[in-house]
Amino acid sequence: MRLTKFFSQGCGVFLSEPSRTEYDLNFNFLGFHVRAHPFFFLMCLFIGSNIVGGRGVNTGVGVVMGVMVFFVSILIHEIGHSLAHRRYGMGSRIVLYAMGGMAIPDSVGRRVSLTHQKSIVISLAGPVAGFLLAIACIALGTLVVGHLPQGRLLGFVPLFVPFTPEYQKYELLMAVINGFILVNILLNLLNLLPIIPLDGGRISQSTFEIFDRWDGVRKSLMLSIATAVGCGLYCLKSESTLMAIFCFYLAYQNYQQLNPGVGRRW
């Protein structure tokens, strides 16, 4: 059993593609068709409104820039998956919706059989694209202020801090750069957790199947449930209630896949 039977490539959480609406934003980027559902922009507003800020940054401008940062970051992540699809001879389209994004392989044309190794590459391509964007932003910020990031969020996320007059001169630009660094490091690290259907969960399942053809899926689901429950408990302890609910929901989804229909036992 392959993970691709369950999920399309991408960082989307719910399994089904949202219905088309007359308010969808449709455009092409690097040869891929992109459809952005209206609820995607609400999600961008909810999450991105606090990403870009500073003493010299207008609140309204900061909200708009934060939405842009989140929009671009999710798009680049899905472009990474789509480029990997293209590398292996598949077309791809991107859907951005309330829970993130999906890079969906085209079902039209010749069918391409993916090995587990190729599936792992496709799953890694999204986070790698995000990390490269973060690196590019660090390089740009270094050129602007003349030094490497001197701050650390959570002890490991490099951020530029206002130690120099040059930073204050370009405060909005540096706030946007910090936003890109923050989102693309944290978002993609979280996405690499071995929780299905995140990219890390796909990588985990493909890896288990390489070494255990018959029982790899079950083992990856068990690891996914344990990881999701552990993350949920940590979020509860940290008073991140919404994130805890999200993790527990993923654990429940995985449990349903592990025990379909009439009570299959572990």
Can you give a write-up of this model?
With 266 residues, this protein is an alpha+beta fold. It folds into 2 domains: 3-193, no CATH class; 212-266. The chain contains 8 helices and 6 strands. Strands 1-2-3-4 form a 4-stranded mixed beta sheet. Helix 2 runs antiparallel to helix 3 (116-145) and helix 3 runs antiparallel to helix 5 (171-191). The radius of gyration is 20 Å and the shape is globular.
Number of DSSP E strands = 6
| Model regions low in confidence, pLDDT < 50 over at least 5 residues | 1-14, 262-266
What coarse outline follows from CA principal-axis ratios?
A: globular
Strand adjacency order, main sheet: 1-2-3-4
Tell me, rounded to a whole number, the average pLDDT: 86
SSE order, one letter for each helix or strand: EEHHEEHEEHHHHH
Rg on CA atoms, Å? 20 Å
Top keywords for this entry?
6 strands, alpha+beta, two-stranded antiparallel sheet, about 270 residues
Helices, strands, pairings?
Blueprint lengths: L24 E5 L2 E5 L1 H11 L10 H29 L4 E6 L2 E6 L10 H30 L5 E3 L3 E3 L5 H5 L1 H21 L7 H13 L4 H22 L3 H18 L8
Parallel strand pairs: 2-3
Antiparallel strand pairs: 1-2, 3-4, 5-6
Compact description:
By secondary structure, the protein is of the alpha+beta class. The chain has two domains: 191 residues, no CATH class; 55 residues.
